């Protein structure tokens, strides 16, 4: 069973990087993303900003345990742009990321080998200019209890240093906690002595 419960991602968009080959200019960018809607918005913005470019090729990967990804050659020869960009996402082992390489054509054809090299290098430069961090994969739980049990619940949360993400403290209290994946199996037993308290995993 895979107990890997960390993943690497970037914290902020990278600075624009530039790679040149035979008068063609390739501008590389990386962006943190969590859904396809964000991907679409970023690409639309780049197309506005670089409206005179010839190609906006990209690759993205989203997810930690269930991975979704896509690469797009945007009119370049098949697999000469999107795939080399995606290859860099894999080799840097990052996820929740979009890399876009914007190409201004310089009048000289580079051939498929030249294109693969240019898109791969631009993606690599964008990643090298990104702040890559490691995060934990977390599982969320909800603890449901009556107000009178508040102190007991809070004591356990403090003792085990659990991360509260949301609380609704009314007559029937609910506290949401987020726990690192490899510790998730230990959570329910901690609360089991308090039989009046319900704890459920949120998937």
TrEMBL record:
Pfam family, one: Impact_N
UniProt cross-references to InterPro entries, sorted A to Z: Impact, Impact_N, Impact_N_sf, Ribosomal_Su5_D2-typ_SF
Domain of life: Bacteria
Organism (species): Aquimarina aggregata
Family to which this protein belongs: Belongs to the IMPACT family.
Descriptive protein name: Impact N-terminal domain-containing protein
Span of domain Impact N-terminal: 22-127
GO CC aspect terms: cytoplasm
């Amino acid at each position: 069973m895979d107990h890997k419960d960390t993943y690497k991602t970037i914290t902020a968009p990278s600075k624009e990087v530039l790679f040149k080959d035979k008068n063609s200019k390739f501008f590389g960018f990386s962006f943190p993303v969590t859904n396809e809607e964000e991907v679409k918005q970023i690409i639309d913005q780049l197309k506005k900003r670089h409206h005179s470019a010839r190609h906006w090729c990209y690759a993205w990967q989203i997810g930690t345990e269930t991975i979704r990804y896509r690469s797009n050659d945007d009119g370049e020869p098949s697999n000469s742009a999107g795939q080399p960009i995606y290859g860099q996402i894999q080799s840097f082992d990052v996820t929740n990321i979009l890399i876009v390489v914007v190409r201004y054509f310089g009048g000289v054809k580079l051939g498929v080998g030249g294109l693969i090299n240019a898109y791969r290098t631009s993606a690599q430069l964008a990643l090298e200019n990104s702040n890559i961090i490691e995060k934990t994969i977390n599982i969320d739980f909800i603890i449901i209890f009556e107000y009178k049990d508040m102190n007991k619940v809070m004591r356990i949360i403090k003792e085990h240093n659990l991360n509260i993400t949301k609380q609704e403290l009314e007559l029937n209290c609910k506290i949401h906690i987020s726990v690192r994946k490899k510790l998730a199996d230990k959570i329910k037993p901690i609360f089991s002595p308090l039989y009046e308290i319900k704890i459920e995993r949120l998937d």
